[in-house]
Design brief:
Elements: H1 7-19, H2 32-39, H3 48-62, E1 72-76, H4 82-88, E2 93-98, H5 101-113, E3 120-124, E4 137-143, H6 151-161, E5 162-173, H7 177-183, H8 186-191, H9 211-220, E6 225-229, H10 236-239, H11 249-260, E7 270-276
Parallel strand pairs: 1-2, 1-4, 2-3, 4-5
Antiparallel strand pairs: 5-7, 6-7
Helix pairs in contact: 2-3, 6-9
This protein binds S-adenosylmethionine.
Length: 277
Amino acid sequence: MTTQLSERQQREKEYYESYAQSFDVTQDIDFTPIDSQISGDEFRPWNSYWRTYQIPIHFYQSLQKTDTQVIRLLDFGCGPGDNALRLSRIGYHVTGFDISESNVGIAKKLFEKNGKVDQSEFVVSTAESLPFAGGYFDMVVGIDILHHVDIEKSLKELNRVMKVGAQGVFREPIEVPLLDKIRNSFLVRKIVPNEVSLEAHITEDERKLNEVDLKIIKKIFPKTRIERSLILSRYDKFIRKKGSKKSSLLEKIDYFLMKFIPGYHLLGGAAVIIIEK
Ligand SMILES: C[S@@+](CC[C@H](N)C(=O)[O-])C[C@H]1O[C@@H](n2cnc3c(N)ncnc32)[C@H](O)[C@@H]1O
């Protein structure tokens, strides 16, 4: 990466260079959300991560492709590559980029360890200026990334590198003005400090997406659809066993209430953003 980084990009890079050291490359990656949905055994549309994987699975399965055809997926801000590894199980050739060299190095090691090097490519790059040819990718997945970058610049770049007809999906935290105001009030912060919150922000520049961001996304990708979740299920953190792989009852309740109560979805603190070129 030769371009001069902005101050914000530099701060993000520094933070993630050091955070990357905590990732254990030897750990076993949980493939359940991918394998269960590829086989059709189980779907969890109420969980934003499962839903984010469901979109590229459906897209891949709906393609009429020849045996030798390469279908390209971009992991947008890939971090240490565990999501990319899961996504490679679908059959895509996976390309990942990240501003952090350490993350890119870990992602390469993870693919080596899993015998998937031939099905992957990882590069150090900013989201705002991508080193790929126009119309290169069939599918894009980004998890917890748009709220770290300059959304307008990055999505214009993304639009350039997507094929016509390509799809994309992002999973992002999103502002709920009323709830966020209460959450950040002096009294609530005293009782539940930000450090123990579900929504503790990590880097200095990180912030939840807001209505202005959604407008920018819709301007660049007019066919954008937004699905919200995380209303009652915000409290899973306090009542569910850590690391539980079972489906969350509160997530299911949210999902069904959203169908029956107009406006309920607007309280959702997570968004799955589905785009199309
Ligand atoms: C919250 S992490 C998410 C990583 C990955 N998607 C995941 O789910 O594990 C945010 C990532 O964004 C990367 N990042 C931050 N700003 C960036 C930028 N401007 N361009 C590219 N990557 C960036 C960081 O290095 C970090 O890996």
